[in-house]
Amino acid sequence: MEEKINFEDTMKQLEEVVQNLENGELNLDESIKEFEKGMKLSKNASKYLEDAEKKITILVKDKDGGLEEKEF
User: Fold this and answer.
1) What is the pLDDT of residues 38-64, one digit of tens each?
2) 56: CB partners within 8 A, 6+ apart
């Protein structure tokens, strides 16, 4: 079972993967493993953002000048 990490840690790990791939010191097998790890992290980050977007509410003024809460 995978440990669930927060968005910030996911992004830090993704940045590390990108740096590892960009430095050019990995062999092909290591590069493929890092790429797969990066794709998984990217998918997790996208899921975090989708979930956050669903939770966002927007406060807008109604016609009487009051505030009305609406789902984003």
Assistant:
1) 999 999 999 999 888 777 766 666 667
2) 72
